[in-house]
Amino acid sequence: MVKEYVYSICGMCSVRCPIQVEVVDGRAEYIQGNPHAPGIQGSLCPRGAAGTALTYDKERPQHPMIRVGERGEGKWRKASWDEALDYVADRLKAIQAEYGKQSVLFSDRGGPFRDFYRAFLRGIGTPNYNNHDSACARNVQNAALSVFGFGRKDVAYDLKNAKHVVLQQRNIFEAVNVAEVNNLLNGMEAGCKLSVIDIRANVPATKADNFFLIRPGTDYAFNLAVINALIDEELYDKQFVADWISDFDVLKDFVAGYTPEWAEDETGIPAASIRDLARQLAEAAPSVIWHPGWMTARYSDSFYMTRTIYIINAMLGSIGAKGGMPLMVKPGDVGAKGLKSFMDLYPKPEGKRVDGVGWMEGRKHFDQGPGLVNLAYDAIATGEPYPIKAYIAHRHDPLMAFPDKDDVVSMWKNLDLLVAVTFSWSDTAWYADVVLPISPYLEREDTIMTKNGAKPSFIIRKRAIAPIYDTKAIWEIYAGLAKRMGLEALDYDNIEDIWKFQLDGTGVSIEDFDKTGIVSLAKEPLLKPVKEGTFKTPSGKIQIIDAKLEGDGMPSLLPYVSPQRPPADRFRITFGRCALHTQGHTVNNALLFERMPENTLWIHTDKAKALGIATDDHVTVSNNGYSSKIRAFVTDFIHPEAVFMIHGFGHTLPCESRALGKGAADNLLMPKGIRRYDKSGGAISMQEHFVQVAKAQ
Ligand SMILES: Nc1nc2c(c(=O)[nH]1)N[C@H]1C(S)=C(S)[C@@H](COP(=O)(O)OP(=O)(O)OC[C@H]3O[C@@H](n4cnc5c(=O)[nH]c(N)nc54)[C@H](O)[C@@H]3O)O[C@H]1N2
Ligand SMILES: Nc1nc2c(c(=O)[nH]1)N[C@H]1C(S)=C(S)[C@@H](COP(=O)(O)OP(=O)(O)OC[C@H]3O[C@@H](n4cnc5c(=O)[nH]c(N)nc54)[C@H](O)[C@@H]3O)O[C@H]1N2
Ligand code: SF4
Ligand SMILES: [Mo]
């Protein structure tokens, strides 16, 4: 028996925790967290532990496929890699020759492994790189830019040293980042208080000191009232505010009417509790983290709500503070050189983005990096501002990640080429013209990643085992396409040369990763203080007034508008995550499926009683002609206006025997929902739909 341990990086979700894989006689047997990684200390979440079941699953794409039937019919022919890559490269070349270089659209899931294929996109001359984020954290990103002038990932969360953490619309113990969970639990053991503001009792609520069961969609009112109380009782950090917040008086005037007493009616939370929270936070300041949220593609005021969160943190002096939200430390901050970038090999493409982000009236204030892919779909449908004819969905399943699959498909009709690059089946892969199957993470290497943090580091993903099927690493796919499209600088045939290129000039060698899989770039953790130049706004301060936003016709401070109450026989559809699954792509994982084969519909006891529904009954949830069956979970601990389900279930693909037909899909209950996007923050407002619930016959 030959046993070895390989350091790598988990790929079961987008957090990418460092791992250690036990390989016995060439078989990946057991995965645990990398014991050398800060915050991880050997631990993993259940999905990370179930990575072996993904690897050894026969129900994943095993070789390249080219469609032979109609789109979505599921008729394929098996292709060799040469044939599939030739096919894609030839189609891309023909489309670009006819419609221009910019007629190719690409979307992915963001993250630290993008450099190589983004260089490919630059090389072929398209400006249309996008990611998934208008269905996820775009409102937070644009709110951070609007308030600080830098992005959401330019501040960290010092959960270990915090004295009070507020989770609003942030399900930290179920929507897992292992290091964050460990750090917060350690912090709580050392006395940190936890406050949870949620529409239902999620797992964090069960561990909280304060739990506020809020009326769905009224968080902005709650936060305005907290700001009002902090000002009214002079609880804020006056020095920090004087030094670092501009136009604070405008904020003071704006919130004058938004008292806790006013907010009580809106939110259902007693005024006294709101005031009490403000006092508790002031006591713990500046070691306070009011988490800005993550999956905030929920309401049309989520952007403004997140802005208030950042402002509250600033008022408590927590920006840059120990135990608060320290400024993110990058390699350059500790005197180290960052990885060399493949993207720098090519100039930024000249053409304008098809989604209009950064240049079109009303879209100039948005973060340009990954654009807004939903708006690029408008361009596919209309041909305006110019046609998009080819689309590569890389690690992205828009047909599940955006509302109303049929509607999204209807927007894609004009595509001449749709390619899915994926390791599992998905609605999008099933609908594609070509499926390019990548090797799951245990079977592939990736480009080296940088992890910013108090001690920035480089981390490497090495393959634990050889590919079982005819699948390839991501770099192999894009190097193969690059070769065919004449991009010599990306024509690599081994990963070592790619790593060498990245490490060039850093003083780090590939061997340096052998010992632990991680190369730390600093000896001691660094806490960067707030100083001149920290905030990248015109005033150099945290800004209440955002001229760029106002230039696009949106107010800096949005007057509160009460959300619509559901009609008498309806409920607001709400959703979230669970610790056992990642989005839609683990339901068919044999181990995780065994633990949680279906989702349930949370419904309030009184409402359920009136409808004659008990826990475990089958109910139908419907909206606008779409209807799905799901089991009920009846509870006192959800707001009566809402029903809730875990996202990612309700699969319909025949190739996924386990997931097929289990549970319901929340995204199908949001008719034409992709068109309901937030002009200020850029994200889709997915929780602005009302569904009917009835006992199933
Ligand atoms: N209604 C509703 N819609 C939602 C959500 C919701 O809660 N409700 N959640 C939203 C959120 S927060 C997000 S982030 C999005 C997520 O949705 P997506 O951005 O689509 O992300 P995933 O479902 O994680 O992955 C998409 C596909 O990529 C494949 N994949 C996974 N890892 C890799 C990899 O390393 N490389 C490649 N090439 N492929 C890989 C998976 O098998 C899967 O088929 O959905 C959003 N949409
Ligand atoms: N296990 C697991 N972990 C994950 C993921 C996963 O799929 N599985 N996905 C990753 C990704 S891509 C993301 S974006 C993050 C998401 O991380 P989070 O955004 O923290 O996770 P969610 O569970 O979607 O939602 C957070 C909470 O918002 C609550 N909520 C819904 N509506 C409202 C409202 O109107 N007001 C308030 N106050 N609360 C509301 C929900 O009940 C839920 O408890 O998780 C990441 N981590
Ligand atoms: S949070 Fe879990 S699934 Fe995500 S990378 Fe970490 S161990 Fe893997
Ligand atoms: Mo997300």
Automatic annotation (TrEMBL):
Domain (4Fe-4S Mo/W bis-MGD-type) spans 3-59
The record's section on SMART domains has: Molybdop_Fe4S4
> What Pfam family does this protein match (any one)?
Molybdop_Fe4S4
Keyword Protein transport found:
no
Q: Which InterPro entries match?
A: Asp_de-COase-like_dom_sf, MoPterin_dinucl-bd_dom, Mopterin_OxRdtase, Mopterin_OxRdtase_4Fe-4S_dom, MopterinOxRdtase_cofactor_BS, Prok_Mopterin_Oxidored
Q: Which UniProt keywords apply?
A: 4Fe-4S, Iron, Iron-sulfur, Metal-binding, Molybdenum, Oxidoreductase, Signal
**Gene Ontology MF terms in the entry:** 4 iron, 4 sulfur cluster binding; metal ion binding; molybdopterin cofactor binding; oxidoreductase activity
Presence of the UniProt keyword Metal-binding in the record: yes
**Family designation:** Belongs to the prokaryotic molybdopterin-containing oxidoreductase family.
For this entry, the protein name equals Molybdopterin-dependent oxidoreductase
Q: Which organism is it from?
A: Pseudodesulfovibrio alkaliphilus
